[in-house]
């Protein structure tokens, strides 16, 4: 299940991509399939081991084109182990809401992104996220949980302050908002509640089968209750570079 829309966020074969806070690796895997040179970085060692296993399995199965590379590594988003201007593309999906120093993370991403490079940032959307917080303290008051809710204009302004130039936004995963509202209402750790189990089955079916009816419904509902807010931006060239 991808949050970044690659039709709005073009990726070329050979692009060097950083998936920052990669988690289970969903965006890193897609970039690898598209022929990129991918680095998936996360602070969670267990998840990184799993991502590395999937990269190896994809290579063995021939799922990535010739020239594509993939590396999974542990790292700190506030102290990235890469030189300046290292990547053509940076993706950070559902991560910034967890990190106290979000401006520091943006600064590091801008530092390692090449001039002219592209960045995709996704965070939980303000409205659906507020409902989750109102229904359940346990949803966010956990170690490593969500510490803030972004308004769209707030996130875009922080991106501009970091030196990025936003060029597009959208919302995603409208069908997932009711699932999390149910989780919060019945208990975030209670997966046995009938409404939660039933809706989870619906989501799994939707992800696996991709039926036209739910695809159309989600596109229609995304502007209203999309679970995620997605912003795309570029790192401008400096005046000196433009003159060169």
Automatic annotation (TrEMBL):
Methyltransferase type domain span: 18-120
Pfam family, one: Methyltransf_11
Domain of life: Bacteria
UniProt keyword Transferase present: yes
A GO MF term: methyltransferase activity
InterPro entries on file: Erg6_SMT_methyltransf, Methyltransf_11
Record's keyword terms, sorted: Methyltransferase, Transferase
The keyword Aminoacyl-tRNA synthetase appears for this protein: no
One GO term of the biological process aspect: methylation
PANTHER family: GERANYL DIPHOSPHATE 2-C-METHYLTRANSFERASE, ZGC:194242
Name of the protein: Class I SAM-dependent methyltransferase
Organism: Streptomyces niphimycinicus
């Amino acid at each position: 299940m991808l949050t970044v829309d690659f039709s709005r966020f073009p990726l070329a074969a050979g692009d060097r991509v950083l998936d920052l806070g990669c988690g289970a690796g969903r965006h890193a895997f897609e970039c690898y399939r598209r022929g990129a040179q991918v680095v998936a970085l996360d602070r969670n060692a267990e998840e990184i081991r799993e991502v590395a296993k999937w990269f190896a399995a994809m290579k063995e199965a021939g799922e990535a084109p010739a020239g594509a590379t993939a590396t999974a590594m542990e790292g700190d988003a506030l102290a990235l182990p890469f030189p300046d201007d290292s990547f053509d593309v940076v993706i950070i999906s559902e991560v910034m809401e967890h990190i106290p120093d979000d401006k520091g993370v943006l600064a590091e991403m801008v530092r390692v992104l090449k001039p002219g490079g592209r960045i995709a940032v996704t965070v939980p959307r303000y409205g659906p996220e507020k409902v989750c917080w109102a229904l359940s303290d346990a949803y966010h008051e956990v170690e490593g949980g969500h510490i803030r809710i972004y308004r769209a204009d707030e996130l875009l302004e922080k991106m501009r302050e970091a030196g990025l130039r936003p060029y597009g936004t959208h919302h995603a995963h409208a069908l997932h908002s009711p699932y999390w509202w149910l989780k919060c209402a019945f208990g975030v750790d209670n997966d046995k509640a009938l409404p939660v189990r039933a809706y989870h089955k619906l989501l799994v079916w939707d992800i696996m089968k991709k039926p036209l009816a739910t695809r159309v419904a989600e596109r229609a509902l995304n502007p209203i209750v999309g679970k995620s807010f997605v912003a795309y931006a570029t790192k401008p060239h400096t005046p000196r570079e433009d003159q060169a």
